[in-house]
Every structure is written in C-alpha cells, then in structure tokens.
C-alpha cells in the first residue's frame, strides 16, 4: 500500500513542478477517488509555495457545481481576508459579483474564478496555482468531459496553472489499450496527462506482496505489509497462510521487543481460531495477547484484545469472566473516546450479568448503555439496548419502567428523538 501512495505522490509532484503537461486527468472510480484526494492534500502540505484549490463536491449539472465552487471560493477569500487583517496586511479586494451570476455560462464563471484566485498571488512570485476538480461522484460524464476540454483549451498557455481533472476509471484502461476511437480528442493532446488510480483488491494484494518481499524496504515496513496480508488471509479463511504470517510477525515482535506487534500477531491468531470455531485456542491466544498489549501502552490495541477476549468468554458460556472482561473493555473504550464501543461493551457486561440470573445488575448496565446512546445519538444501537432493557424490567416486575421504555421505543420507531 505504501508503495502505491508513494508512486502517486511522486506522479503528482512531478506534474506540478514540471511544465511538460498542463492538465492531468485522474482516472479512477467513485470508490477510489478518496485516495488521490488524500495524497493531494499531503502534496499540498509539503509545498508551501504553490496554491492548491481542491473541489470534490458531487457533479450533477454545470450550474449547480459552479455555484458550489464559487461558494467555496467565497469561504477561502473570507479566511484569507481575516488572516491578512489580523496580520496587519492590506486585505484582498472584494470578489467580482460576476462570479455569482447564475445567468452566466458555468464554464465562464469557472474560468474567471481561476483568474481571480491567480490575482491573489504576488506579481513578482513564480507560484503555481493547482486547480483540482475531482467530484466524488459524476452524474453526467459527457458534460463533465466537455468542461475538461473547455478549461484545458482556455488555459493552454498559462504556465502558472496546473489543472487536475477527475474522470471515470475506464479512461485509463482505454488509453492503456490504445482505443483511440473511444478516447476524447482533448485528452490525447500532448499537454494532457492521463493518470490511472487503481486501488482494486488485486492491485492492493500485489502491492502488499511486493512491499513485504522487497529487501530494500525497512524491516518495519515489510512487517506492516505482512500484517495486512495476514489479516486479509484471515478474512478469506486462508488458515495456513495466515498462521504462517502471524508466526513470522510474532517472532519479529519478540526479537525487536515490539510489544504492539506481539499483541497484534497474537490477537490475529485468536481471530483466526475463532473464525474456525476453535474457541479454546482463540481464548488462549487472546489471553497471551493481553500482557504485550499492556506493555505497548496503545489503548486501542488493548481495547481490541480485551473486547475479543470478552466475546470469546461469552461464546464459551464463561459468563463471570465475560462480565469482567466486558467491563475492562468498556473502560478502555471510554479512555479512547469511542462512545459507541463504550456502550456496546456495557451492553456485553449487562448480557453477561443476565446470563448469571443477575437481572437487577443487568438492567442497571442496560440503563447506563441507553444513557450513553442518547447522549451521543447512537440511535440504531439505542433501539437494541431499549429492547433488552424493556425485557429486563418486565422480568423484574417493574411494569411502569417497562412501559416508559416501550413509549421511548415507539417514539424512535416513529422517527422521533429519545
């Protein structure tokens, strides 16, 4: 995975810094667009000289998209003016009203917006403007492609501008196949670069395998890639492959005194055995993972280990141990500020108490879980908790409390708030 991101980062940096291409078309799916956007933010953060304007709102029609972009520019302008005033500088002038004229063609408004932001730069500088139009979703691909064509043509001589324009995932495949008759003419221009972003399962698997086996990679990076592969093997229940990787990771963790890796590999062995219904072995590995997780001082790792241990105790019908483990997991979730996980662990503690015929204690815990869900608006889980809370009150013979919970459940079902 790291190599995929490093390669993408290098591509983006070269595109911005070199003058070989003025437009880059990022070809990727709706599912994958978040990855290049994240890398672009990283590139922006590492480059204090160039100005990045990144717009990723959904594209439904040109007028609506132009309206959204102009509002984003209004926000950026207001922030810049406020900062300049606080810093004792002369603030930027007002934005042209023509930017917000809905009667103008959207592409004209977009072109004027680029020129307007460019005018914010100091005249003596050589700063570049990187204008990124990368909607998370594109509803009208043909109209969107026309925008790319028109903007590229309008700014073809602007050496200070880099246009980055998102397109569908199939474009890169068409370019790779040389299907010229299916590729828009403007994309084939010499100043346009098509870059395909593929984060499909096969690509990720191959990238992880390459990183894990690359002798030039630092050992820590290779082991992190191996861990991700082991987790994926577990997900597909490739038992032998997963076990081999987890044992390799455990040996590495012990040799380097990496307590977090020791805990993750042991927990991985627990997950693998639990997936294969060997609860005794799963419990053994989770219990082994507790000490190194504590040594790692990583709260979330500790939480995951103890949570899995609690669930395994419960599945084994070891309810006293499950009750205590769920309580410890709840405390760790609270420390990590994971409110829904906190509520779910309190619910587990309540279920463990109920299995031990301690319905009074169970109701007390379910009531606490309900309070957490109300405070943090975890409505879906609140409905589950209230169902158990109502049953608990009924078993205790408290009809009044049961009726109050039933009324709250009815309000939630009708779409109201608790």
Automatic annotation (TrEMBL):
<dbReference type="InterPro" id="IPR011990">
    <property type="entry name" value="TPR-like_helical_dom_sf"/>
</dbReference>
<protein>
    <recommendedName>
        <fullName>Tetratricopeptide repeat-containing protein</fullName>
    </recommendedName>
</protein>
């Amino acid at each position: 995975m790291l190599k995929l991101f490093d390669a993408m980062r290098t591509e983006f940096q070269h595109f911005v810094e070199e003058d070989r291409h003025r437009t880059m078309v990022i070809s990727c799916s709706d599912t994958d667009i978040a990855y290049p956007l994240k890398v672009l933010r990283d590139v922006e953060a590492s480059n204090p000289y160039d100005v990045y304007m990144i717009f990723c709102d959904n594209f439904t029609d040109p007028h609506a998209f132009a309206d959204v972009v102009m509002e984003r520019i209004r926000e950026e302008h207001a922030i810049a003016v406020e900062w300049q005033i606080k810093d004792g500088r002369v603030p930027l002038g007002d934005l042209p009203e023509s930017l917000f004229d809905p009667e103008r063609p959207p592409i004209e408004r977009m072109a004027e917006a680029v020129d307007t932001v460019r005018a914010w730069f100091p005249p003596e500088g050589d700063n570049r403007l990187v204008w990124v139009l990368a909607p998370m979703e594109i509803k009208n691909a043909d109209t969107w492609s026309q925008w790319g064509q028109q903007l590229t043509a309008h700014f073809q001589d602007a050496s200070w501008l880099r246009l980055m324009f998102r397109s569908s995932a199939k474009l890169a495949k068409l370019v790779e196949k040389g299907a010229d008759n299916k590729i828009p003419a403007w994309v084939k221009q010499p100043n346009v670069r098509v870059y395909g972003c593929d984060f499909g399962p096969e690509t990720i698997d191959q990238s992880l395998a390459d990183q894990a086996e690359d002798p030039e990679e630092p050992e820590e990076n290779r082991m992190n890639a191996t861990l991700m592969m082991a987790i994926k093997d577990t997900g597909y229940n490739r038992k032998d492959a997963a076990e081999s990787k987890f044992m390799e990771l455990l040996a590495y963790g012990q040799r380097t005194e990496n307590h977090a890796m020791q805990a993750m590999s042991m927990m991985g062995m627990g997950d693998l055995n639990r997936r294969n219904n060997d609860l005794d072995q799963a419990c053994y590995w989770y219990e082994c993972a507790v000490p190194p997780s504590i040594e790692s001082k990583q709260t979330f790792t500790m939480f995951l280990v103890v949570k899995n241990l609690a669930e395994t105790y419960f599945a084994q019908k070891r309810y006293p141990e499950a009750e205590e483990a769920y309580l410890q997991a709840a405390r760790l979730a609270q420390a990590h500020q994971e409110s829904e996980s906190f509520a779910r662990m309190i619910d587990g503690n309540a279920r463990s108490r109920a299995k031990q015929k301690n319905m009074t204690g169970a109701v007390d815990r379910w009531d606490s879980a309900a309070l957490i869900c109300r405070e943090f608006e975890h409505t879906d889980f609140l409905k589950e908790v209230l169902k158990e809370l109502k049953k608990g009150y009924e078993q205790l013979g408290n009809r009044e409390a049961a009726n109050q919970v039933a009324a709250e459940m009815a309000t939630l079902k009708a779409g109201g708030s608790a």
